[in-house]
Amino acid sequence: MSFLQPSLAVSQSAQNGGISEEEKTTPLFSWSFKETYALLGYERVTKRRDGSSTAADPAEIIFLNTNTPWSAFLCGSQGSGKSYTLSCMLEGCLIPSKKIGKLPKPLTGIVFHYDTHSSNSICEAAWLSSPNIKVNVLVSLSNFHRLKALYSRIPAITVQPLKLRSKHLNVERMRDLMAFGPAERPPLYMQVLYGILREIAIQRPGGFDLADFSERVAQKEFTKDQQIPLALRLELLTGFMDKDPKKPAYDLFSPEPGTLTVVDLTDPFVDAGTACTMFDICLALFLENNNGAGLVVALDEAHKARPLKRHLCMQYMNNNPAAARFTDNLITTIRVQRHVASRIIIATQEPDIDPKLMDLCSMTIIHRFTSPAWYEVLRQHIAGLSKIAGNTKEETIAMFQEIVELNVGESLLFSPSAMLRVKDGVVQKLGFNFIRFKTRPRLTADGGRSVQAIRE
């Protein structure tokens, strides 16, 4: 049974074919504006900038505009429905189902996942695996067998080691893998490696060759004290390299539209900096090989975040150069999302990430949480929230109470450029207002249900 009601009318501007560029690129819209793309959920109540509210139209359903680049920030406590909403957004971008809308050209999905607490966890987004979505999970070689066994609970899923080839590397990425940082004072052996990379950059402008690099390193003389840390650096590099000389059947970083690739680097032997560096390299490779098909990139379970300096520093992203680079490249990707055909989703429990990420997002979806500290962070970076709840103490308490009392799957949706109303034939932006929102039912299996002592 379809979740849609195709009998509802579209806006006067859409009927006349006079849709403006602004209307085409809005991240969210309702039945009263368009009739295509992916159903995301249903409106409950709309809040206005003066604090008043209007009852929701029971027929007013909200669509995600999968035809244009956008970015989304999702936050909320565990069990509030945050990851569920993320999965629904991914479904809308990947599944061409008439049950939820119209998707002539599915996007390519990428999800980054890392868990510092347990090497026995899996990425919830992998449960999108179904006849409609092929899911491929890329994992570290040292945790391949454990994660393959865990992911095997999901039907029709593929698990492969994450392996880079020489063509995937360049001098800049080699610098990252060898853990060079602008603020560091590298030891002598690192300066030697840096010199080798400079030589390669000058002599081989066409690309990077790992065999050539290894040969040049072998020709250098290092002291016994230098050989041990050098061996560790090189072991890290070779651990993610494909040593098979045969060309693979397909490129891991050129997935087909309508598929989902999960990069899961959960591994007791993969440290924080390595995870950040590999995510950064993978993101760059996926963007390079996009070929205009369109990408939706999700940062899953980013609640292991802590604000160190000005960078997004998840718990596994301690204050290191790799964390800073990955954060800055995410910010750059959001800034140029229109030019690289990308949609970025950041899902987190705690909203204390780099403020620029929150400031740049097209939409913010706030699920239930009970932390006053989180609320204060959000007030500083969401225009609609600061406008409504920033005048008096009573308004602030009332707004926080509304968040605390949200039901599972409900959220407050902020998106200034969203077009959810048509008045006298003129499309109205959401602006400083927001809506109380209910995420639609999923099409695929829900792998994020709470584990209870007594199971039903």
From TrEMBL:
SUPFAM superfamilies the record matches: P-loop containing nucleoside triphosphate hydrolases (SSF52540)
Name of the protein in question: P-loop containing nucleoside triphosphate hydrolase protein
Species this protein is from: Saccharata proteae CBS 121410
Organism classification: Eukaryota, Fungi, Dikarya, Ascomycota, Pezizomycotina
